[in-house]
């Protein structure tokens, strides 16, 4: 088990330092605050913040199994007939109620999980207007999430297609597992600030790795308050990436 105790001027500073040393992201660790920072009185009694950061141990998954999972999802996407022409769709599949469309989506996700040899998947959902959130629970949740959420994102795209194939109105689908989406957003927001600071420190452009559009949007929004940098996206999906440059 990888674990590190780190001090810093603030709690967030200590966490960031620990993440860099462990070479992990925030959603991959558990954090225990040992001590909050103390300013002291006239310089006396000041104390740095101290945190204990532990890498979360997940079920070991071989590179081979991850590759097989990715290949299986790609094969499903290629062979899937989830996007027929509108005329064909209307003739072949009658529009269902939202409840039925949601159930069809659950059934589809279950079938994908079974193909990944995940037999204990539990799916619940919450609907707010046109948006439907599906929550996935399993002992093998790491396989459902995948490296940096890649498997979860692929499943979400497929679920979106299935829902709108059967629904009588447009539905926006989001899949989540172990609160990954919220943890990922926090990680992206912190990463955005660190990368922006790096752009200012070096005076040059800083480039992120390719990521989905909604993740790029999170970073754009997180940095929209900063007047010292500019952000824009380059490339084409699925390899589109975000760039930060000092404001000129």
Automatic annotation (TrEMBL):
Record-linked InterPro entries? Jag_KH, Jag_N_dom_sf, KH_dom-like_a/b, KhpB, KhpB_N, R3H_dom, R3H_dom_sf, R3H_KhpB
Q: Which residues form the R3H domain?
A: 182-248
Note the SMART domains from the entry.
Jag_N, R3H
> Which UniProt key words apply to this protein?
Cell shape, Cell wall biogenesis/degradation, Chaperone, Coiled coil, Cytoplasm, RNA-binding
* SUPFAM superfamilies xrefs: R3H domain (SSF82708)
Q: Where along the sequence do coiled-coil regions lie?
A: 19-79
Checking CDD domains in the record gives: KH-II_Jag (cd02414), R3H_jag (cd02644)
Entry-linked Pfam families? Jag_N, KH_KhpA-B, R3H
- Where is this protein localized, as stated in its record? Cytoplasm
Where does the source fall among the domains of life? Bacteria
Which HAMAP family does the record cross-reference, listed alphabetically?
KhpB
Family, similarity comment: Belongs to the KhpB RNA-binding protein family.
**This protein's domain notes:** Has an N-terminal Jag-N domain and 2 RNA-binding domains (KH and R3H).
Annotated function: A probable RNA chaperone. Forms a complex with KhpA which binds to cellular RNA and controls its expression. Plays a role in peptidoglycan (PG) homeostasis and cell length regulation.
Assembly mode: Forms a complex with KhpA.
Protein name listed in UniProt:
RNA-binding protein KhpB
| Gene name for this UniProt entry | khpB
